[in-house]
Amino acid sequence: MLQERYGTGPDAAARAATELGWDIGKARGALAAGDEYRQWVRDGAAHARDRIAVCRPPGETGLPDVLAATLMTAACAYEDVVPGRPSPLPLPDELTRWYVFVQGLGACVAVAVEDACTPDGSPRDYMRVAPVAMVVQAGWTVRDGVIFSPLPYAEYPDGIEYDEEAVRASGGTPLPDESP
Hints:
Blueprint: H1 2-6, H2 12-20, H3 24-51, H4 65-75, H5 93-96, E1 99-102, E2 106-113, H6 123-126, E3 127-131, H7 132-138, E4 141-143, E5 146-149, E6 153-154, E7 159-160, H8 164-169
Helix pairs in contact: 2-3
């Protein structure tokens, strides 16, 4: 923005310094930062692509691709996803669009948890993966292309309270009970 306002010519730094009340060195640095900033953004985006796994729904959801990927990525954020693994259970068509296989949980569906979803909330607060058997048992609705289910949910510590039988039925292996 500074380059747009003051240009890049020999007197740009002097004009910026005078108008903004800066010393000439600060103005030169600020005008030069535009190119460095653009490179920093490009480097950060490349780093994010390498480090942050983006999950996409396997089926057409009816949502814009970026929104569907954002919701699926939020649901799978803390999970070990096994790409390309088919469901050991038959899936209703509506659930197939949001299917994902998760190590330990088995065949899952990305869902918006009814009790956690708020109109202004972040998808990371309400999108989760749940074993297919749990979603089928609890029921679901589709609203604006997203699967909503009234699953048992506790905000802390882990979100969905997984049913051990549903995890097994979905091809997963429940964690051992850690209670004393």
